[in-house]
From TrEMBL:
Class of this enzyme: hydrolase
Family: Belongs to the glycosyl hydrolase 1 family.
Example GO biological process: carbohydrate catabolic process
Organism: Faecalibacterium taiwanense
Active-site residues, Swiss-Prot/TrEMBL: E364
GO CC list: cytosol
Alphabetical UniProt keywords: Glycosidase, Hydrolase
EC number(s) recorded for this UniProt protein: 3.2.1.86
Protein name, as recorded: 6-phospho-beta-glucosidase
GO terms of molecular function: 6-phospho-beta-glucosidase activity
Length: 468
């Protein structure tokens, strides 16, 4: 069986990991531009400014800025129906608080969208994908400050108007739920905690301001072009109870509550009982200002986009309600010790649709692995083909057998890009190999892997043929 007609096949990237050209044509610094590269799982260092003698992976990334025509041609050769990317916010508003945008930045994305349309590829655009302007972090406290709601709205209205008719699918914040799940939500919200700050209170505050900004973006986007489809985007952590013990089942619920907190507000338009229970568990609250409730209610999203890489297991502990681990004796694991669980994707699709009855979009799913270039120049990545094939099969089952409406599937990432966690290149996801090493050296030459031809076959068969 095939996927539905008009199913959007493609791949997904983020500007901070892919684009490069970090100061070209008037671009300002983003939060990614002061993250020093790391090696072999060592945490990245975050600086307050660009310091000489340090390697910052986002500065060049793999230079999509100067290779976009070559890369888009390769995507078209695979048969892409869509391409998910992000607009680098400080390329449009270098500081983030200006009244007028940077024309050179706007013109760059015009060229990219025009090139995509030349091949019949639909752009799918994330408005904020770990690229908050650094100036807003340093001078406004990032999303702690409600001023960012209007700054974000101005940015959104600018790109909605500029690219009207060129872009129809938008997402507001990438993996917004990781704001609550991370110890410090720097990538998601530009937040590093100050000494003495109450972490949970800050997480609730910045999340609330981002909810309001998302709702305002939805309203603006629909007003500019009623054809626009604007979604939220979360990281979905399918989670199983470790046993059928009731307390383990409760632990699984506690693990999922911070994630549904975000989709409840953005999809239902208000803080649900789950949200208030989660705030109580965190020992904090949200202060609603006049007009907030009305804005949230009027700015609900059109669809839910999500990333899915692996599943987890929750168990109850004596000192806390919930402990989450990735060890699952029923699953194999990747080079990075992530469980391989295609059935978890089918479960995720069912859980989300059962809860919200909104169309879904799988916008990240992929296998990070160490690829070897053989003496003949080939890259035999059968492990990637098996991983993606099994997940696409599970996706098809959710559509065919479970009646879940899915807009499309964009694997992460169709071309090798910088790791967001460490800045490394050795953790590769792509169908296209990029000659770049962890220290930043390399020619940036592009080379097709074995999986390139396989994904081309998958798309040509509309998902019917996923065999190796």
């Amino acid at each position: 069986m095939e996927m539905p007609k008009k199913f959007l096949w493609g791949g997904a990237t983020a500007a901070n990991q892919y684009e490069g050209a970090y100061q070209t044509d008037g671009k300002g610094l983003s939060i990614a531009d002061v993250e020093k590269g790391a090696r072999h799982g060592v945490p990245r260092e975050i600086h307050t400014q660009v310091m000489e003698g340090n390697y910052y992976p986002s500065h060049e990334a793999v230079d999509f800025y100067h290779h976009y025509k070559e890369d888009i041609a390769l995507f078209a050769e695979m048969g892409f129906k869509c391409f998910r990317m992000s607009i680098n916010w400080p390329r449009i508003f270098p500081q983030g608080d200006e009244l007028q945008p940077n024309e050179a930045g706007l013109a760059f994305y015009d060229r990219v969208f025009d090139e995509l349309h030349r091949y019949g590829i639909e752009p799918v655009v994330t408005l904020s994908h770990y690229e908050t302007p650094l100036y807003l972090v340093q001078h406004y406290g990032s999303w702690r400050n409600r001023a960012l709601i209007d700054f974000f709205a101005r940015y959104c209205e600018t790109v909605f108007r500029r690219y009207k008719g060129k872009v129809r699918y938008w997402m507001t914040f990438n993996e917004i739920n990781e704001t609550m799940n991370q110890s410090e939500p720097y990538h998601q919200a530009g937040v590093l905690f100050a000494e003495g700050e109450e972490h949970n209170a800050v997480k609730a505050l910045v999340s609330h301001n981002m909810f309001l900004a998302s709702a305002k973006a939805v309203q603006i986007g629909h007003a500019v072009d009623p054809e626009n489809k604007i979604g939220c985007m979360i990281q979905y952590p399918t989670t199983y109870p470790r046993t059928c013990a009731p307390k383990d089942v409760l632990a699984q619920r506690f693990q999922m509550m911070p994630n549904y907190y975000y989709t409840d507000v953005m999809c239902r338009g208000h803080y649900t009982s789950l949200c208030t229970a989660q705030l109580r568990r965190m020992g904090t609250s949200v202060e609603m200002q006049p007009g907030d409730a009305e804005l949230l209610a009027a700015g609900t999203v059109d669809y839910i986009a999500f990333s899915y890489y692996f599943s987890s297991v929750a168990r109850a502990t004596e000192d806390t309600d919930c402990c989450v681990e990735r060890s699952n004796p029923y699953l194999q694991r990747t080079d990075w010790d992530w469980p391989i669980d295609p059935d978890g994707l089918r479960i995720a699709l069912n859980e989300l649709y059962d809860r919200y009855e909104l169309p879904l979009f799988v916008v990240e799913n992929g296998l990070g692995a160490i690829d070897t270039v053989e003496p003949d120049g080939s890259i035999q990545d059968d492990y990637r083909i098996r991983f993606l094939g099994s997940h696409i099969d599970a996706l098809r089952q959710a559509i065919e057998l479970d009646d879940v409406p899915v807009i499309g599937y964009t694997c992460w990432g169709p071309i090798d890009i910088i790791s967001v966690g460490t800045g490394e290149m050795r953790k590769r996801y792509g169908f296209i190999y990029v000659d770049k090493k962890d220290d930043g050296s390399g020619t940036l030459a592009r080379k097709k892997k074995k999986s390139f031809a396989w994904y081309k076959k998958v798309i040509a068969s509309n998902g019917a043929d996923t065999a190796l």
